[in-house]
Amino acid sequence: MQKNRIDLITLGCSKNLVDSERLMAQLAHAGYKMYHDAEDPRGEIVIVNTCGFIGDAKEESINTILQLTEVKKKHRIGKIFVMGCLSERYRQEIADELPEVDAVYGKFDWKGILADLGHRWDDSLEGKRFQTTPPHYAYVKIAEGCDRRCAYCAIPIITGAYKSRPMEDVLSEVRGLVAQGVHEIQLIAQDLTGYGHDLYRRCNIAELVEQIAETPGVEWLRLHYAYPNDFPLDLLPVMAKHENICRYLDIALQHASDHVLKCMRRHITCAETEELLTRIRREVPGIHLRTTFMVGFPGETEEDFQELLKFAREQKFERMGAFAYSEEEGTYAARNYTDDIPAEVKQDRLDRLMALQEEISLEHQEAKVGQVMKVIADRLEGDYWVTRSEFDSPEVDPEILIPANADIEVGKFYLVKITSAAPYELYARLV
Description:
Blueprint: E1 2-10, H1 14-29, E2 33-36, E3 43-50, H2 55-73, E4 79-84, H3 85-89, H4 91-97, E5 103-104, H5 110-116, E6 137-141, E7 143-144, H6 155-159, E8 163-164, H7 167-179, E9 184-188, H8 205-213, E10 220-226, H9 235-241, E11 245-251, H10 258-264, H11 270-283, E12 288-295, H12 302-315, E13 319-324, H13 332-336, H14 343-366, E14 372-381, E15 384-388, E16 399-403, E17 413-422, E18 425-430
Parallel strand pairs: 1-2, 1-3, 3-4, 4-5, 6-9, 9-10, 10-11, 11-12, 12-13, 16-18
Antiparallel strand pairs: 7-8, 14-15, 14-17, 15-16, 17-18
Helix pairs in contact: 8-9, 12-14
């Protein structure tokens, strides 16, 4: 155990990561040596920033805490603090059932951690981050919470109503990150396309994105977590206009059966979704769309699932992930529907959907062979430099691999020629 050391472990999404980075900045300012996601935590305090979105995420959070309690018994770490989404929902349960945990905090009461350690929250550090990503890219969260109330989702229960950050605060943070050497901004929110309606009484995402794109030093700007219903169409000409806005959009659709979409309370039909996707692709030529689908929602029939397969086959999404429904306490679905799809059926549907996507992904990847693309170098790993194009978000999308003997520097941009393809990797050489 190392005195004056704090290990912070972040689970879940990039929005959680931003929260961790903000807290770490405060703790570092208070004099602690900060370590993030260390393979061998040794701190006098270990903080776990938990995820509670779906069953698998909750299980990972609990297992991580249990593993740390075993490490604590060997006196390799000191106190265990738990924070984040899971503890926001189940604070008392964690305290009661895991007595080895020394303190439990919610998602937003970070000041309590500082206070319990004998320090004050320093307001002068607002917007400051202890960056855990590589120096050349960072996530910028523009809003907290969600007003959508989809039937299956516990996020509004955990985070509350949608709350946009003032535009100037976001721009100030972007300018600060650029000054530190960040070239690529990953713009995130639970519902990116709802930005501004609470502060400005209208959706302001197009204006915000344009101002970020016009900020000197922002070489790539990537947009995550759009919502299809009431999509702000004025965003599309902004994306098409600015070369530094990546031709990339993460827009979770969840399903394609009108029956399931209605039960999910998504407030959009398959036909309306298709119309929106057609317009996006027409107005932003070459865009790569990432989406997420859910299988096994209560009442989903094999016919519903076949509609989803047909939709995915026809749309040929460049990037797609999927997960199986898990009942979340307190949600509309948990109160009103029966989780009636057997686990093995959910898994079978998930496997079939992802097998289809692997075929589609390989088709997209092979079409890139011979092309010259601009990439940014993330890291050296084994025999390859790991790089990404504007079509690839860190950690979730395909990577472009270049032989390790190439003259490359992390964080720099290069032109490469694609030489071969696999479903989820491309291979290239420097031009």
